[in-house]
Amino acid sequence: TIGVILAFVTAASWAGKPSTDKPPTVSLTTPANGATYAAPATITLTATAADSDGTVTNVDFYQGTTRLGNKTSVPYTLTWNNVSGGTYSLTAVATDNAGLTTTSTAITVTVTGPKVMIFTPANGATVYGGSVNVSGIYSGDPMTTSVWVDNGNSNRLATLNGTSFSTTIPIFLGSNTLNLSVVRTDKTVDTASISVIGGDTPKLAFTSPASGSFNAPATIPLAVDAVSPSGTISKVSFYNGATLLSTATTPPYQYTWTNVPKGNYAISAQAVDTLGSSAWVSTAINVLGPNAPPVVSLTSPTNNAVFSAPATIPLAANASDSDGTVTVVEFLADGNTLGAGNAPPYDMTWSSASLGTHTLTARATDDRGGTTTSSPVTVTVSPPNQPPAVSLTSPQEGTTIYDSGTLVLSAAASDPDGSVTKVEFFQGATLLATVTAAPYTYTWSGMAAGAYSLTARATDNLGTATTSAPVTVTVSPIPLRISTPTDGTTLTNPAASVSGTVSAPANSGVNVNGVLASLDGSGNFYANVPLRAGTNTLTATLTTQEGQSFSQGVSVTYQPSSAAATITAAPLTGFAPLTVTFTVTPANNATVQTVALDHGDDGIIDTTVNYSAFMLTYIVPGTYRIRLTVTDSLGNVTSQSFVISVTTATGLDPMLRGVYTGMLSRLKGGDITGALTAVTASAYDKYRAVFTALQSNLAAAVDGLGTIQDGRIGSDYAEYLVVRNTVDGPRGYLIYLIRGEDGVWRIDGM
Question: Residues 156-176: what's their mean pLDDT?
Fold first, then answer.
C-alpha cells in the first residue's frame, strides 16, 4: 500500500512541473514587405530560423493558407515561379525537433499584371492529336477558387496545385479559341484566352508495290500518296529498315529500288510536313529466288477432235507448280480468253463455238507471276452433222432358221458428211457384236428357239447414231420329222412311201435316201423310196439355201413276198396338168385281175380297173393321196400308196425371183459370203472371184445390173431375162437357175 501511494505521489509531482522547451524563432528576410513584381513573377522567399534549445527541422513557406513549399536545411530559400497578378501575404513557419512551431510576421508583396496566365499551349501554336493540355497560373486560394477552360463547344474544370492549374480539352482542326475563367467564392472573376491551330499529322499510304512478292534480282517500284491536313508535305523518305533509300520532295513520291537480292525486307516511308509533323507507313516485301514456271497441259478435247455445230466443247487442263502454287488457269481459243479458274479441277465448257478450225491452249500463272502456255490442240467445228444411214441386208424379214444353226447378219451403212466408225448388231436391246470396218457382218450362233427382232445401229465419226428398221427372224426347233413309216416297221412292198413334216424357209429341199421329196406348201414332205431286202435306214435330210441341213432317220425292214406285185407311179410331182403313169407287174407270171383305186387313201374304193398300166391326169394344183390294191390271177393281193404333188410355174416364180434379188441385196450390203449361198457349187469359185474383185464398188455395181423380167420355169430348171439400161439403150442378159439334188434352187449362170 505504501508503495502505491509513493508511486502516485511521484507521478503527481512530475506532472505538476512546467515544460522548459522553447519554440524556434523565424522571420522572412526576402522579399521585402511591400515589394512589387511584374507578372508572371518569380519571387524568392528566404527565411532565417533558429532554436535555442534544439534544432530547426523544417521551414514551410505559405501564401495565405496555401503552402508553397518547404526546406529542411539551411539556407531556407524557396523560389515561387509564375506568380500571377495580385497582392499576396507571405509567411514562414519553422518547426523544431520537439515539434514546436513558430510563424513569422507576414509580409505583403504585390504582383502587377494579369491575375491569370496561360503558359501552355502558346498563343497561335499548332497542336496535334485532337486535344491539348492547358496549364498556367492564377491568383487565388485553391480552396475558394475554380478554374474553367472552354473551347466553344465544351468546358473542363482544371486541376489546381497551389496557384497553378492544368486540364486537357478537345480541339478541332483549324482555329480554336480557348477561354479561361478564374471564379472565386467572393464572386470575383478573372479571364484569359488564347488561339491555337488544331493540326493533324500527315497521312500516307503505299500505292506500290501491289504485291509483296518479287523474284530476284528484283526491281521494286516504291510509291506513296501523302497529304498534310495542316500544311503541305515537304518530303517523303523511303527506308529499308533503318537505311535511307531515297527522299522525294515533290509529288509523285516514288522511288524504284533495283537489283534487290533474295531476302525479306521491312520497307517504310516517312512523310514530313511544313509544320514539322511526320508520320510513317510500312510494308513487308519478300524477294524470292529464281522462279520455276508452272506446268500445264490440255487434257480435253483431244487433238484434231471434230464437233458438230452448234458445238459445246468441254475444256479441261492439268496444272502444277514445283516451287509455289498455281493461281489461275486460263483457257484460250485462237489467242482469246474463253474463261479461267483459280482452283482445280480446271475445266469449263465452251458453248456455241463458231464453224471452222480453232487452236485451243491453256495458260497457267503461278503465285510469282510466272506463266506457261500449253501445247496447242486443234479442233474443228463442222456444220450440223447429218446422221448415218444403215439397213440390215441379211437376214431378210421373216427369215426362219433352226436352233443349233447359225445366222449371218449383214448391214449396209454410209455417212453423207463423214465416215461410219462402227456398226453394232442388236437382238432387241442386247448387243450381239460391234464391227468397226466394212463389210459389216456377224455370224450369230447358239440362239434358242423363238422370235427375235434384229437391228443394226451405225455411228458416225461425230458420234451420231442411226438404228435400222428391225428385221424379225424366227428360230425354230429341229424342223424335220418322219411321220411314216415309223421306226422298226416291217414292209412287204419294194418301195417305202415316206412322209413327214417340215418347217423350213422358202427354197429349201428334202431328200430321202437320194430321192427328192415333194413339198406340199403346208409343211409336209413326201417321197417314194426303193428298199432292199433286209434292214433299211431311211434318212430324210432338209437343206436350206443358207447351207443349213438337218436329218432324221428311221429303220425299217423289207421282207419281200414272192407273191407280191410290183406297183410303180411316175412322175409323182410336176406342174398342172400332171399326168401320172401307174404300172402293175404281178409276180409268178400271173396277170392283173383287178386294180382298186382309193383316191385319198381313206379306205374307200373309188374306181376299179383291170389294166396293168394306166394314166391319171391331175388338173388342179395340190397334194393327192392314192392307194392301189392289186389282185392277180393267182389271187394274190398287193397294196401300195402314193402321194402326188401338183404345182404351177406361177406359184414357183416369186421364190425363184427371190433367189436372185436376195443375192443382190446381200451384195449391196457387202455380204459376199451370204450372196454366194445363192449360186451352185460349180459356179461358186467363179462368182466369188467376181464379187471379191468388185468388193470396193459392189453397191454401185449391183445398182447397175438392171431389173428381172420374164422367165421360163421347168420342174428343175428356170431362166429369166434381166434388162439393164446402158448408154446404147436397154440390154438384156439371162440368168439360169437349177434345182439341185438337195432340192434347193440356185443360180448356175448369168
Answer: 92
